[in-house]
Hints:
The chain is of the alpha+beta class. It is built from 3 helices and 5 strands. The protein has a 5-stranded mixed β-barrel with strand order 1-2-3-5-4. It is elongated.
Amino acid sequence: MRLRISALFLSVALSTAAASAQSNQTLTGTVSDAMCGAHHMMQGKTPAQCTRECVKQGSDFALVSGGKIYTLKGDKTHFDKFAGENVVVKGKVSGTTISVDSITASKS
């Protein structure tokens, strides 16, 4: 009986840890690409142009927020509309990846 209770407790604890590791959050930041992050490297290109070029070359869209870079997972055509812009992203954060539920232009 004790073993079952301990196993149940451990199972609940692990489930809670997994749920908190991947939680719904709202983040504000700038849409960029994972390679350049906050510092775009293409000379003569705007941040939006550089982001789009890097994504065409295989980089992922990213959100630069609070000094961190999060890889965006979801509809790339939707992210492309916001390249180089400040946005509000809602989604599930797991480490440095956001599974995006919604992305909108930031009001500030």
